[in-house]
Amino acid sequence: MYGKAFAPEYQGALTTLSVNSSLADVLAEGTKRLREAERSGRLDEAARCGLAVAEAHRRLGQVRDADRVWKASYRAARQAGDTAAMAWALWSGGTLARQRGAFPLAWRLLGLAAELGERGGDVVVRGYSLAGLAETGRIQGDYEAVGRLHEQLLVEARRRGEARHTVWALEGIAQMHRNTGDYDKAYALFEEAAEIAERAEDRRGYAWALRGLADIVSVRDQDTGRALELLSRAEEICRAMNLSSALAYNHKMRGNVLYRAGRYTEARDLYQMALEEFRAMSEPRGEALARLGLAKSLARLGRDRAETAAELADLARTLERSGLRHAREMVARAQEEFGLTMEAVR
Known about the structure:
By secondary structure, the protein is mostly helical. It is built from 17 helices and no strands.
């Protein structure tokens, strides 16, 4: 049903790159090809190669470089009159905006990318852009608004036999079920995503699916050993492919698993590691989640009650401003866990 996974963001002279190519290799080859296209004045090729370079920078956590390159890719595509390439550049920019926590900008850029993709006749970039909108809403906790879009995109991906996009949609829907407490449904979806990703040789998607399975195994089954084993398998993939963001989220999840098992010192160390990784790549959502885990671990290890209350209150204000509703609810649960409701803090 599904063919081998491919990376549609690797275009022009870079179509030979694999979905599993190391990001360091993508960046090196993409930069080389981009410079060649610029020297020869081939604007369309510069736009296409620039897309891969921007995405490599983004996934490596090199935010400023990613921002500079996707904009240059868009300008080249516009000068070349290549509507589809313009859409891809906007998709990259919108994805970066979401990663940076700039959600209004992400909505705007991804919406424009979907429109241009449709106008340019590129169904893939249209689908990726709509998927980006769905993921933005999901991350913000607006499940009702984007749940149907996730399901619609899953149907389209299955119909076209696009393994990578199917895996993404399954993982997004699974995460919503997990966050609303339907662990059995979430597990089944993560398991299907893992199976499809493995058969299609989509190692990135497989690593994310393993992380999701580890979370369910930990929270539902309380099987710490198996959860850690799944995360170790995922970490090997993240390191092999230089997946900086995925690796940081893996470390944060490992902290979650250890915290649930009462291994608070180990959890503290993992949360601290993840926090430093997220800060290095300017990823505010991951930073907030790592801060939350660290605050909870420190509280369990005897941190002063007033310091814990102040940390959680500051984190709650930060998440309120950023519009991350689900993460804000997690902070509220932590405040209840330690008897630090707003009334108690006063």
